[in-house]
Amino acid sequence: MKWLRLGTGMVLILSLILLSACNAPVFLSNEFQTTGTYPSKPITGVIPWDQGGTTDSIARTISPLVEKELGQSIVLTNKPGATGSIGTHYVYEQEPDGTHLLFSAENPALYGVLDISALGFDDFEPIALYARTMATVVVPADSKYKTLDDLLQDAKARPGKIKMGSTGPGGLPHVVSSMINGAAGTRFNLIPFPGDGPALTALLGGHIDATVSALSAAINNQKAGKVRILAVINDQPVPAIPDVPTVTQSLPQLEQHLPWGPFFGVWVKKGTPEPIKAKLAKAFAKAEETPKFQKALRNIGAIPMNLHGKEAERYWRDWQSTTAWLIYEGGEAKVHPAKLNIPKKPSRSDQER
Amino acid sequence: MAWFEYLLIPFTDPKLFFIAAFGTFAGFIIGALPGLSVTMAATLLVSLSYTWDTIPAIVLIIGVFFGGVYGGSRSAILLNIPGTPSSLAATFDGYPLAQRGESGLAIGYATVYSVLGGLLGIAVLATASPLISSIALSFAPRDYFLMMLLGILVVGSVGSKDLPKSIFVAGLGMIIGLVGMDSLTGVDRFTFGSVELKGGINFIACMLGLFGLAEVLHQLRHLKKNRMNDISGQFLPSCAQFLRFLPLSIRTSAIGVLIGSLPGAGGEIASLMAYDHAKRTVKKPSRPFGKGAYEGVLAPDTANMSAIGGALIPMLTLGIPGDAVTAVILGGLMIQGLTPGPLLIQSSPDLFGVIIGAGIISAVFVFIWGLMGLSTFARIVLIPKHVLLPIIAFLTVVGAYAIRNSVIDVYWMVIFGVIGYFMKQYRFPTGPMVLGMILGPMMEGHFRRAIMIEQGSLLGLTTSLFTHPISFLLTFAIVFTLVTQTPWYVRSKAKLFKQHQRPAKIE
């Protein structure tokens, strides 16, 4: 029976070797793959978030449309964990030859300030930013707060007592409450939940007083009479809910930060050849314009962006500057934004002080 | 009940009927293969469905959901590897049963009661969704914490007779669960600066190692032992047996629906709690628990199947996923333009009716596929070890890789396989470790939220335990569980009733 033990061990080791070989970056692929024939083999699309989330849903909607444009298949894999940094790191480890795409949300822009990863969007180049979503401040339908001003007044009168749902540092509720705190001088008791779904659940059960939720989830629950939307975090009213006031009606100082919200797009590793990037950008731009994609975005309450190249670069850098400094002023930054060469927007300090 | 007229659509449309049957079969295979998860299958199918109509797509996913949850118990019983996390509890008594040559009967029990649990779950979904979802909503973070605490007490049932060892191992599991980024503040814990460790150590990989690979290594050492020549020919429980366990299976189904309906707690916790419930309430099990009690097979299987109906409740009534699979379905429905939420049952009664209809068909097909080729499956335990063990070893490696497409998980699987081997060698139970890894991090998060809601005051938290009905009930259950374990209680009870409880003898 000795050979049996040996055999089992061999199989185990062999399969391990095989697997590590699968995982290793494909050597020489850069030399063999001339940019003219790109994409000559299937592309791997990495989604650094779990199945079923917004990032995942949008990526899975757009990739079949891009496949059609490129004439090559995109194999999507989820590599979730650590605020998306595991998947981001994985793509960074690959060759910059356009065979690995990162279908990400805004999070890597804040990895530096929150000390989540040494990597960030600086190590990647955006191919397309296709959508953004908006945040809303919601309370239960039977709440005593009828308007945002009610909530803010009470928060001022009882600092740190109002229970606000949060999704951890850098998340939607955290940044929005930092914005509001900076302008209104309020302080909330932020209760962190593993996502905005659980936070909304706790709100519906009356375990917290308020939360900041994505527009789509808030609208559905408002229509059913379960929650009241006190304000949208935007400078203009949203067509789907025209009666809901914008946050700037109560706090005009916030206008400098807006429009603000999560955004979604696709990135490649820095150093990817220009023709490959151009080809990808063109394919994504075409896919984004299809009525099918536009409709899917509307369905999940997202706003189409269709930004590419320099425009996309400018958008996320601007977003990063706003958010990083907001987090810093909220006292939650682990690394000073100036240390990361994140510029502060000039207008803000004059207005605030 | 506007949805009622749509209930029959999947039955009358041959295409939908076929899709549900096929989905159940595919789910069965996926669930039975360790590491391949229902979540993975659902994701793949949902993205396929972007080009399909909504109804066939959802029917397919429901089929896969049912088949997958059921399939997990197959490898748990035959190979001692839980095919899905929710079939962990099925290994406790299912595998000992298979070792006794009753693999066919163990599968038979699992199948019959899985169908029952699945149907009861669907029945609750159809009739009592609004009620259940309002109960689920009234669970505050502190109640979740209490429930997880109650779950941890299951350690007393799951482990071997050696309670200190079980507690030690569960504690170790909880510490391993702490590795990674703190979910509340993003602070690194035990990561040593490694990117891979930031995402934590995947408990499914550990489970595959502790159960699958460790079992292979263990059997390699004891090749001569446990050799079976034939298996028992009985596959289905008799009518009398079925009726005997019916009350228990209805209770465990109720546990499954309720826990499944809580967002963030799914089949894996439900099945463990159901196993614990069975062990505590069944006075005279068919065999001692852990040695091949039929009750220990059917309790977790009814619970994780009824948890499917439970998990669909918050998704359909609140637009909040009850577990990972429903999160995927939710994402898919939103892309399709259907907005699951409080209005769904009114605005799309067809969808609700079809889901229930598809659930019923899938449950029936679980029965058909489950019993098909049963005698062949049951003979897996007779396969010579020099063929079977390398196959299991291979499956654990592939399964570990498939969890997140990451080779790191394979390394963890191997490391925990070796750890599990030594644990078995020194008679440490492996179940409590996985239990600690699953429950520990959840318990921690809920506790911290609960105390933050009380402004950090421990006194406030303690008083709130007595002022809220659900919290009070759960606290009472915990205290009761703890007290009944003490020798003092057993003695005084014996004195009071003038009778001694004799543990059932091993056959």
TrEMBL record, chain A:
Q: Where are the transmembrane segments?
A: none
**Top-level taxon of the source organism:** Bacteria
Q: Which UniProt keywords apply?
A: Receptor
Q: Do you know which Pfam families this protein is assigned to?
A: TctC (PF03401)
Q: Which InterPro entries match?
A: BUG, Bug_dom1
Instruction: Spell out the SUPFAM superfamilies in the cross-references.
Output: Periplasmic binding protein-like II (SSF53850)
In the record, the note on similarity to other proteins reads:
Belongs to the UPF0065 (bug) family.
Supply the PANTHER family for this chain: BLR1237 PROTEIN (PTHR42928:SF5), TRICARBOXYLATE-BINDING PROTEIN (PTHR42928)
Name this protein carries in UniProt: Tripartite-type tricarboxylate transporter, receptor component TctC
Specify the species.
Answer: Melghirimyces thermohalophilus
Mind giving the lineage of the organism this protein is from? Bacteria, Bacillati, Bacillota, Bacilli, Bacillales
TrEMBL record, chain B:
Q: Which organism is it from?
A: Melghirimyces thermohalophilus
Keywords (A to Z) from UniProt: Membrane, Transmembrane, Transmembrane helix
Please list which residues make up the signal peptide. Answer: none
InterPro entries according to UniProt: DUF112_TM
Protein name stated in the entry = Putative tricarboxylic transport membrane protein
Q: Which residues cross the membrane?
A: 16-38, 50-70, 76-95, 107-132, 144-160, 167-187, 199-218, 351-374, 386-404, 410-426
Q: Which PANTHER family match?
A: TRICARBOXYLIC TRANSPORT PROTEIN
Q: Does the keyword ATP-binding apply?
A: no
- Which residue range or ranges hold the DUF112 domain? 18-435
Lineage of this protein's species?
Answer: Bacteria, Bacillati, Bacillota, Bacilli, Bacillales
**Entry annotated with the keyword Membrane:** yes
